[in-house]
Amino acid sequence: MNQPSIKRLDELFAAEPDRLSRLSFDVAAIYFDWSKTHLDAELIQAFVDRAETRSFAAARDTLFAGGVVNRSEGRPATHVAERGSGSPEDVDLAAARHLRTRALVDAIEAGAFGDVTGILHIGIGGSVLGPALLVDALGRRAAAFNVRFLSNIDGAAFDDAVRTLDPATTLVVVASKTFTTLETLTNMEAARAWLSEAGVEDPDSRLIAVTARPEAALDQGIDETRILQFGEGVGGRYSMWSAVGLSAALALGWDAFEALLEGAAEMDRHFRFAEPDANVPLLAAFADRFYVEQAACQTRGVFAYDERLRLLPFYLQQLEMESNGKSVTTDGEAVERPTAPVTWGGTGTDAQHAVFQLLHQGTVQTPVEFIAVREADDAQDPEHHRLLLLNAFAQGAALMQGRRSEDPQRSYSGNRPSATILLDRLDARSLGALIAFYEHRTFANAVLLGINPFDQFGVELGKKIASQLSERAGGDNLDPSTSALIERAGV
Ligand code: F6P
């Protein structure tokens, strides 16, 4: 951030008395403060012009009308239809599928599956990160079931996941858009074996599938009455709004699930209708583009100053990096600019005692984002929460202000940007709005870059080679390093 033409943050505040009011926003009971970023009127105007050149408004209209925004796969992105925006057919279909999910939740609650105390949710990537975030964030006090999430193919993960579950009273939810994913199918078989070894009669009757390909779930022996479908247009990392949210709806209750959708819909309306200079996901994308493209920042740090949001950085990693970690435009041309930075992060205040040294004094510049919640929801002295919030705000102030010292070791350059998101309270509605904010910001970044955020071909090659290795079909072309590793590991 030391380019001569870019003003320092303290200069920006001094030069613009209305800076805070222009760069802070209240949307859906969430306060967004982007004033400690380097965005100024000139930069914003330049990005607004770029958005126009990129036909941003038309791209957004296409998204919300259910048009084809995922060109490489020739389909729309219909996660917004789950929240009521899209083509009438997509919206009706999503609503009908929600009714089916709700009926299953009601049936389980009413005892149609006997006594149920636990849910083993199996899925990976987008088929687990969203539900796990929801249950971890909102289900701490009063989850109706003991929901455990299992993703990794590592058997140790399976052992951990079932440790507190009773096979006799557990339902297994297998979420997979494709229903072909190696990890998920392997874990599903392990779950069947776990149930049957525990003497559960007819283990298959305890399995529920959530998928966009019901025929693939049928092929895996799951009865059609226990298959919940969602649309092909719902990308894995955008799927928590669909039946993929079943385990969360079970843990939190259907009303909470509906509130989640309503919160997201409120953010959808903001993103659709707010003017560019007051449109929070779009402005956040402008800042993202600025730091990656003009300040050469290769990473973005996200710190949840709330234990309930500790899984948010992991969720955002997939959302942002799988969506925008691309090198070619929608037309297949090499992209002209750096695309997604590495999203990383952690929880405050822990991170202050681990990684913040580099953020304050390191040579790598990292825009930082703080996410905090005004109202506490814990049983401790309110002083804990007061100190938690003050620490978050102190970090942002310190990064921006810095402090000069005669002693270079004790000098802080300052002028280090941060954004702060402060929720009034953490509930299903505000979390829905928050996640939708990140989805739209990701979309806005993609439009500004001219890339497709809805495909993920980059993950295919590794999967393919793993399967060739497993079938011993790739041996001839294997490099010496990999061959030696396989031999040494004895696999
Ligand atoms: O890792 C690639 C990926 O396809 C993700 O996009 C997806 O969320 C995850 O795998 C799981 O895929 P599925 O839901 O088809 O099992």
Report what the structure shows.
This protein is an alpha/beta fold and 491 residues long. The chain has 3 domains: 9-65 and 270-455, Glucose-6-phosphate isomerase like protein, domain 1 (Rossmann fold, 3-Layer(aba) Sandwich); 77-252, Rossmann fold (3-Layer(aba) Sandwich); 458-489, no CATH class. 45% of the residues lie in helices and 13% in strands. The chain contains 18 helices and 13 strands. The protein has a 6-stranded mixed β-sheet, with helices on both faces. A 5-stranded parallel β-sheet has the order 6-5-7-8-9, sandwiched between helices. A two-stranded antiparallel sheet has the order 3-4. The longest helix has 22 residues, at 88-109. The mean pLDDT is 96. The protein binds 6-O-phosphono-beta-D-fructofuranose. 6-O-phosphono-beta-D-fructofuranose is lined by residues 124-127, 176-178, 181, 184, 236-237, 322, 456, 459.
Question: Which helices and strands appear, and what pairs or packs with what?
Answer:
Elements: H1 9-15, H2 19-22, E1 24-27, E2 30-33, H3 41-53, H4 56-65, E3 68-70, E4 75-76, H5 88-109, E5 118-122, H6 129-138, E6 146-150, H7 155-162, E7 170-175, H8 182-197, E8 207-211, H9 214-219, E9 227-229, H10 246-252, H11 254-273, H12 280-294, E10 299-305, H13 312-324, E11 342-347, H14 356-361, E12 368-373, H15 382-401, E13 418-423, H16 428-449, H17 460-470, H18 480-489
Parallel strand pairs: 5-6, 5-7, 7-8, 8-9, 10-11, 10-12, 12-13
Antiparallel strand pairs: 1-2, 2-13, 3-4
Helix pairs in contact: 6-10, 10-11, 11-16, 12-16, 13-16
Bound molecules: 6-O-phosphono-beta-D-fructofuranose (F6P).
